[in-house]
Amino acid sequence: xxxxxxxxxxxxxxxxxxxxxxxxxxxxxxxxxxxxxxxxxxxxxxxxxxxxxxxxxxxxxxxxxxxxxxxxxxxxxxxxxxxxxxxxxxxxxxxxxxxxxxxxxxxxxxxxxxxxxxxxxxxxxxxxxxxxxxxxxxxxxxxxxxxxxxxxxxxxxxxxxxxxxxxxxxxxxxxxxxxxxxxxxxxxxxxxxxxxxxxxxxxxxxxxxxxxxxxxxxxxxxxxxxxxxxxxxxxxxxxxxxxxxxxxxxxxxxxxxxxxxxxxxxxxxxxxxxxxxxxxxxxxxxxxxxxxxxxxxxxxxxxxxxxxxxxxxxxxxxxxxxxxxxxxxxxxxxxxxxxxxxxxxxxxxxxxxx
Length: 354
What we know:
Layout: H1 2-20, H2 22-26, H3 33-60, H4 67-100, H5 109-193, H6 199-216, E1 222-223, H7 224-239, E2 246-253, E3 260-261, H8 267-276, E4 278-279, E5 282-292, E6 295-303, H9 316-328, E7 333-340, E8 343-351
Parallel strand pairs: 2-5
Antiparallel strand pairs: 1-3, 4-5, 5-6, 6-8, 7-8
């Protein structure tokens, strides 16, 4: 963490070292005081305007939609660079070039005029080159700062989205537990009304299920093996209150060991089957869970009890699990459920790869 804190400054320092010695890397740079002054002047100008743009102009002007003021400031900086280079290099050449070429030389007027024109063109080209170098510094600085701002905003957006998803998932998960408890207590209440000898066993079974919910369901992922065992225990609890005419099959095919899954995904479907698929006349619930490689399929069929209102078949539990699947397995699941020929059919496919 400490290294990451200093990574950006280190990269900036290394970049400026490379920029300073770039002329030596690309070609055989000339020596002498004139070249060194020009090289250092360019470096200072680019360095100064790079960070002025990076820390002040872009964040306070460009990113606040003040493009005209930003453009005028950049233009002023380019004009300043042009004339400061002209002034400094004139003074340098006046000192060093005059000293190097000391001694009068006789030249005619035409030759002198041509020399002056050549020097003027060279001076303007040199100043224009300085402007181009500074402009490149502005361009790179602007792109760097805008990229940083975009990355920071994207990071904040993802963090907000993550917190939103966590809040939504917590809310959805909080709905599952009371819904499950309500349905389970209804079943135990029915046993108690009949003064059934199975009531103590049902209460013990419920306590085991609640222990799983308390210690496992708050995790992001749980072992598929434990989740499967939880479903078997829940089915066993429901069987205690049902007549023998109700046919219930739960088959597990494939290797569930070593696989991880979001908790409490299947229980709303099974709750729905027991709530709406059985009555005093019997019922039929067929559940199959299959794992092949990293693909899990969950298929369930239950008879729709004639005593149930059809509008209640797809209750809050099914809507809840559908939303959770969208959040937990976006683009990695297929869910379909429908009523057909007096039966309610569910098909769920999950890609368990993280």
